[in-house]
Design brief:
The structure holds 2 protein chains of 2 kinds.
Chain A: H1 27-41, E1 48-52, H2 60-63, E2 67-70, H3 76-86, E3 91-97, H4 98-104, H5 106-115, E4 119-125, E5 128-129, E6 135-136, H6 160-167, E7 171-176, H7 180-192, E8 197-202, H8 206-212, H9 218-228, E9 229-231, H10 236-239, E10 244-251, H11 258-269
Helix pairs in contact in A: 1-7, 4-5, 5-6
Chain B: E1 5-11, H1 21-25, E2 31-33, E3 39-41, H2 52-56, E4 62-68
Antiparallel strand pairs in B: 1-4, 2-3
The chains are: A alpha/beta, B alpha+beta.
Chain lengths: 274, 72
């Protein structure tokens, strides 16, 4: 902990508040956890660049008082890659929605993970496209109701953790907005980790996902996160293997980071004169 | 509440959207809705300053300030 008391007013652009997220939307809790993580790490606001794409989640870049880049749908990681390569000293953080990260931006996601570039990707998984009116996403899963699936979805969902792991991400974690303190701690570790970090945070969309799938209001959806998730390897999994696991799934430090590897290429090309 | 400490609930009513998350998850049932459907500290003397409301408020509308001082 830093000495000073945390006040989120030090880290936001208050002129854009109250924010545009619906009452009870979990995205605000992700924002709050991120600000607390930045505070506890003692980072300067000028050291951070937030790059986002399009969607409810991507509005975060407007609310935070860091360097920010609000880009195009699915391409936040591509923009962040450019920023990071030109200014490797910046901490690049990319908040994305599930659709933004894994449908429209699916290829950018796997390739950023494969390169192991030092970026923190936060996937705010509400299992729906909220901003455009509740279409199903690649994270909705089968048998769910959505504006575009009045007779239930037939598509299976991705497992973000498995996908990130197999694509080569060197830090992979999952939490939920009910576990706000755990979220903050995982974000701190992800931001500090040198390499590509993925933090999946389950967050409720009471307006579309919750209402259409009879999962209740924001409070009931958060109760769901409390009851349907467990820490990695919990004994409760023996009785119910369908429980979602939370925690750190991958933490590797033996893989070269992309910007550093690229620097070595420049050194070789310039024969040590760079 | 700890002896000799007071807890102040700074609630930004302009930002609060009345989702009720803070009220539901408060372990000491300190918070309630006010007449406008916004969160309000109805029983601040019961607060243990666990800050769960502050952590989980999606609207960044609650801040808990702990102060040393009389508890009367």
């Amino acid at each position: 902990m830093t000495k000073e008391r945390f006040d989120f007013k030090d880290y936001i652009r208050p002129r854009f508040f109250p924010h545009m997220w619906c009452p009870g939307c979990g995205h605000g809790i992700v924002l709050s956890s991120l600000l607390r993580a930045v505070h506890e790490l003692g980072l300067e606001k000028n050291e951070i660049v937030i790059t986002s794409g399009i969607g409810c989640s991507s509005r975060i870049s407007g609310y935070v008082d860091f360097h920010s880049l609000h880009t195009i749908h699915g391409r936040a990681l591509a923009f962040a890659t450019g920023v990071k390569l030109s200014k490797p000293s910046l901490k690049a953080i990319v908040p994305m929605g599930d659709g933004d990260a894994l449908a429209i931006g699916g290829n950018h996601f796997i390739h950023a993970a494969r390169r192991n570039i030092d970026i923190t990707a936060i996937v705010m998984n509400n299992r729906i496209y909220g901003m455009t009116g509740g279409q199903f996403s690649p994270l909705s899963g089968s048998g769910k109701k959505a504006t575009t699936a009045p007779y239930l979805t037939i598509d299976r969902e991705f497992d973000i953790v498995d996908l990130a792991k197999s694509a080569g991400a060197t830090f992979v974690a999952r939490s939920t907005v009910f576990h706000a303190m755990e979220c903050k701690d995982l974000l701190k570790k992800a931001i500090t980790h040198k390499g590509f970090s993925v933090v999946e945070i389950l967050t409720q969309c009471p307006t579309y996902y919750g209402r259409k799938n009879k999962e209740g209001d924001a409070i009931q959806m958060m109760e769901g996160y409390k009851n349907n998730t467990v820490k990695i390897g919990s004994k409760k999994l023996e009785d119910n293997p369908n429980l979602i696991q939370r925690g750190i799934f991958v933490e590797k430090t033996d893989v070269p980071e992309y910007c550093e590897a690229y620097d070595r290429v420049i050194q070789t090309a310039m024969k040590g004169k760079a | 509440m700890e002896k000799g400490k007071t807890v102040q609930h700074l609630i930004n009513k302009e930002w609060c959207k009345g989702c009720g998350i803070c009220i539901h998850f408060c372990p000491k049932k300190v918070l309630e809705f006010d007449g406008d459907g916004k969160a309000d500290a109805a029983r601040p003397e019961d607060c243990i300053a666990c800050r769960l409301c502050e952590l989980r408020c999606p609207d960044l509308a609650i801040q808990i300030i702990e102060q040393d001082g009389e508890n009367e």
